[in-house]
Amino acid sequence: MKNWISVISLIAVSVLYFNCTNTVLEDLENNPTPPDVAKYNPHVKAVIDAHCINCHGDTNPSAGIVLSNYNDTRFQTETGNLLNSVNNDANPMPPSGLLPQWERDLFQQWVDDGYQEN
Ligand code: HEC
Fold first, then answer.
1. Which of 41, 42, 57, 105 is deepest in the core (most CB within 10 A)?
2. pLDDT-based confidence at 24, cuts 50/70/90?
3. Average pLDDT, the chain
4. Spatial distance between the Cα atoms of 116 and 74, rounded to a whole number of angstroms
5. What's the CA gap between 56 and 1, in Å, rounded?
6. Residue 3 pLDDT > 60, yes or no?
């Protein structure tokens, strides 16, 4: 019985978590005006969770590139790797195709606004 409660709690937390993440993106999709200040959390993280984390999470990340947290994401951005990849027509990230311009702009704005965490 206790196990079931744990499982159900875990599912509830996961659903809540994904709902929150998606809400940030949905708000932006409906009204893609740049935020006053682009921050890692919620903006950059929401884009990564939707489009990158499947391949660049903690476990066996593609090309060894981890984008699951602030420090690693900032590092990949400061090297220029991340912006080059998301804006690369020939070999875009995600590999399925370039993201909409407003999502790519969020990464650039995050840089311009000084890599704020939250
Ligand atoms: C379907 C899996 C997949 C997704 C989704 C994905 N990547 Fe990648 N990524 C890869 C693979 C595979 C490589 C290594 C091969 C290559 O560079 O094409 C890579 C390489 C990279 C590199 C290194 C490129 C270089 O030249 O060193 C960066 C940075 C990167 N990805 C960022 C991202 C970002 C940011 C996103 C989301 C916007 C993303 N990736 C989404 C699979 C993925």
1. 42
2. confident
3. 89
4. 10
5. 36
6. yes
Taking the C-alpha atoms of residue 28 and residue 52, their distance in angstroms, rounded to an integer, is 18
Report which protein residue has its CA nearest ligand 1's atom 26: 81
Taken in order 97, 100, 106, 112, is the CA torsion positive or negative? Answer: positive
SS3 34: coil
CA distance 59 to 42: 22
Long-range contacts of 7-11 (CB under 8 A, 24+ apart): none
- Enter the tokens of residue 59: 């476990």
